[in-house]
């Protein structure tokens, strides 16, 4: 007995107009369109050979009747890269120190100094991010996510207390004041 095989978005090896019952056929999904990736096979009248799954782009099958094989595709997940921040946070969430972003995404980092310290600049600890020295001093810092993982660190310096003036100008309000107290019909300190 012979059967036909109808293919959609796939090729068969051997590629024949008719197959004998039980023939083994190798099916290969066509290349995915831009932004898509192979998802799975939709098979009818075909049995997968051992070791193959419907999610494999190339499979081997046995024909058991008039058959159809269709390769299906899904949207490709965007490629993301990890951004890590030390001494600051991402976006508006003060607890967010790491996240994954697509290249080109607009990122905002904010440095958060501890009491007694002030922010000086960002440094790129790992990865490639081309920013000017002037831009690296911005807080918050806004930039486009590069095409790769990147790690930034917020740098701080200890605040210096205001210097103490060795010859301060006296404040008239701080000077001792003299008051006159008059007591009528009583005593002060027993007198």
In short:
The chain has 191 residues and is an all-beta fold. It has one helix at residues 133-136; strands at 2-3, 5-8, 10-13, 19-20, 24-29, 36-48, 58-75, 80-86, 88-90, 98-102, 106-111, 117-126, 141-144, 150-158.
Could you describe the 3D structure shown?
This protein has one helix spanning 133-136; strands spanning 2-3, 5-8, 10-13, 19-20, 24-29, 36-48, 58-75, 80-86, 88-90, 98-102, 106-111, 117-126, 141-144, 150-158. The protein is mostly beta strands. The radius of gyration is 38 Å and the shape is rod-shaped. The model has no long low-confidence stretch (mean pLDDT 90).
Which SSEs are present, and which pair or pack?
Layout: E1 2-3, E2 5-8, E3 10-13, E4 19-20, E5 24-29, E6 36-48, E7 58-75, E8 80-86, E9 88-90, E10 98-102, E11 106-111, E12 117-126, H1 133-136, E13 141-144, E14 150-158
Parallel strand pairs: 2-7, 8-14
Antiparallel strand pairs: 1-4, 3-5, 5-7, 6-7, 8-10, 9-11, 11-13, 12-14
